[in-house]
Task: structure prediction
Amino acid sequence: MWQSHFFTFSTAIGFLLAWYLGIRQENHLANRLLAIWIFLLSVDSLFISLIYHEVFYEYPHIVGVTTFFPILYGPLFYLYARSLTQTRRLTVADALHFFPFLTAFFLTINTFFLFNEDDKIRLMENLIHHVNVPWNYEWGFFLVTTVSPLYVLWAIYLLFIYRRELNNQLSTIGESTLNWLWVMSFLNVVIWLTVIGNKWSTYSENDFLHSWFHHAPYIGTAIFMYCTAYFSLKQPQVFQVSFDKSDSRPLTDKEKYGVNRLPEKLQDSILTDIQELIEQQQLFLDPQLSLAKLADVSHVSTHQLSQVINDQLSLNFYDFINQYRINFVKSEFKRSPEEGILAVALRSGFNSKSTFNSAFKKFTGVTPSQYRKQQ
Result:
């Protein structure tokens, strides 16, 4: 049966990936969490393979060992995304994220200690065919189809916040956007939709629909595991953001600055000094220019600098610096009309063609090529 070979292969690759991620030094905490997650997925895949081989008839005591592992996947994905995007460390309070799994475990603990071999075999057959499923397992499956999907949505919410904070703190985002994690989040959502579909397909008399939904979550999870590991291994150390609030929610201007809001005249003065400094020293030509770097050379705190840019110009730091770069590019187009567009962009502080094209069109309304033709 191809399914058994597929899951056997998935198990072997998964254990190897978990070991490799566990010894990597880049994004240390994130890779440790991912290693744990992939290890659990691999154990789950191993038990699925054993089920396809009907090994539980010979060793019925393995029944139910990994049934509720999927409840752990959502919290682990959330903590993984958080560890990649924030400076927060794991705390004892984070153990609460795994409370739903413990709930499901204790609801079904009787199958591990009270059921004899025949009862466990009967239970596994009932679970496979979705007939006469005990109430405690029904509640456990309810947690599977609700807890982890909600955590995945929470992780996506963190990515939205992360992108906003990057715009407030960096002038060049590049690989820090974690676009691959956005893709993985989307795939995660799709997989959990198939898990939910698998649950509801048990009430359908369509055998094809039931068979498809039965296999899709497991195959999708295996593919998802490989893709996540691949992108994670390629991902360099990423920029992590700090938040003023430990709950990671977006902050309003009032929460950000509160009673520390600078007077209007002082903001005007700081903005004038900052603009003169940027123009005179052409600081915008540095692709690695960040809010922290500019605050350091201007002797203004990052808090005050961010407030001035937000309040006086209604811009985030990313757009504030890119305005200077685009103006510099336009002047270079006039001064060196024969020079290649990409060469000018790289000299102007941009580190990629796509980032430059996006910024140029945002501020001018046309592409760089169209702008040159208009000159």
